[in-house]
């Protein structure tokens, strides 16, 4: 049990590292005071361009992927794999390093699901790309892909705990996008521009 609890704490702490905020800080920018104010890859991309945006995406994704892969490597049962993924995700969303005010969790969730079910990610990514290409809103694409994930998991990995984890993640991702949803409704959300 000590091993499992240690992994949960480490997953949470790894998830808590605010990749985007640190990378932006290295470029002299306070990412929480620019664009949407979010610490995620979309806002970093919007503010500092493709290279730093992609670095943030990869860093945030690895924070979800690495703990899940370690849990699998240790041969832990599904309940601990799901809990580890959730801990890393919660670390990003409610980071201890920023007074529990973190990001929206999309890239870290991507990493968690890559570790759990790469095929599900492929389908969710397809949904994300279709919505992004059609409407040009990253937030709308993120919300739609997150909402699709529990259905995809239920179909491809029909295990209760993984479905529960994906439902919890989807609900939190959507909740964290509540300001984006308001902006989408009022027509003031920024559209994605490739740089
Ligand atoms: O992953 C976050 C994205 O869906 C929205 O980011 O910066 O537009 O709020 P942002």
Automatic annotation (TrEMBL):
GO terms for biological process: phospholipid biosynthetic process. Pfam families: G3P_acyltransf. One of its GO terms (cellular component) is plasma membrane. Pathway: Lipid metabolism; phospholipid metabolism. Keywords: Acyltransferase, Cell inner membrane, Cell membrane, Lipid biosynthesis, Lipid metabolism, Membrane, Phospholipid biosynthesis, Phospholipid metabolism, Transferase, Transmembrane, Transmembrane helix. The keyword Cell membrane applies. Belongs to the PlsY family. HAMAP family: PlsY. This is Glycerol-3-phosphate acyltransferase. It comes from Geotalea uraniireducens (strain Rf4). The lineage of its organism: Bacteria, Pseudomonadati, Thermodesulfobacteriota, Desulfuromonadia, Geobacterales.
């Amino acid at each position: 049990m000590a091993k499992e609890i240690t992994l949960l704490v480490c997953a949470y702490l790894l998830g808590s590292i605010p990749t985007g905020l640190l990378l932006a800080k290295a470029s002299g920018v306070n990412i929480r005071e620019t664009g949407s104010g979010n610490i995620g890859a979309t806002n970093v991309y919007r503010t500092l361009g493709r290279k730093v945006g992609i670095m943030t995406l990869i860093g945030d994704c690895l924070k979800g992927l690495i703990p899940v892969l370690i849990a699998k490597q240790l041969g832990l049962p599904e309940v601990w794999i799901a809990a580890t993924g959730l801990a890393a995700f919660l670390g990003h969303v409610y980071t201890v390093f920023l007074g529990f005010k973190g990001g929206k969790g999309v890239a870290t969730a991507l990493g968690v699901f890559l570790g759990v079910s790469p095929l599900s990610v492929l389908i969710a990514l397809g949904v994300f790309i279709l919505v992004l290409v059609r409407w040009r809103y990253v937030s709308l694409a993120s919300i739609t892909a997150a909402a699709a994930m529990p259905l995809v998991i239920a179909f491809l990995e029909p295990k209760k705990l993984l479905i529960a984890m994906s439902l919890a993640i989807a609900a939190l991702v959507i909740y964290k996008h509540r300001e984006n949803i308001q902006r989408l409704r009022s027509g003031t959300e920024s559209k994605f521009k490739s740089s």
